[in-house]
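Researcher: Sequence recovery benchmark, item below. Answer with residues only.
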């Protein structure tokens, strides 16, 4: 019901902010990856709150896929750092996804430019 939805939103927001902090302060140590340039644009919780899907976008969108792959590979490291910030009995599993919506906005913009020529 409504409370479940709010709980989901609340947790998603918490995860999003915590991830943002972790990346900003470079708290999850990655081999050759500067996390300060990564933005968490959105976090969506699964219905059972077991999975947090984090949409990420590197600064300027460069090498986005490569960075997302690295995040996936080291998601357990992030989760460990996250567990110190969010005290819950069950911490959601982290799923990193490349945020495509920005590409999409750009595509639309280019389409509009083309049609206006």
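Model:
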């Amino acid at each position: 019901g409504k409370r479940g939805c709010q709980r989901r939103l609340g947790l998603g927001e918490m995860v999003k902010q915590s991830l943002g902090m972790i990346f900003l302060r470079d708290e999850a140590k990655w081999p050759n990856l500067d996390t300060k340039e990564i933005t968490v644009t959105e976090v969506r919780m699964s219905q059972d709150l077991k999975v947090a899907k984090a949409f990420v976008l590197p600064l300027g969108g460069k090498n986005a896929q490569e960075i997302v792959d690295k995040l996936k590979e080291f998601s357990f490291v992030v989760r460990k750092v996250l567990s110190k910030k969010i005290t819950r009995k069950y911490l959601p599993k982290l799923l990193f996804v490349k945020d495509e919506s920005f590409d999409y906005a750009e595509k639309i913009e280019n389409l509009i430019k083309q049609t206006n020529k």
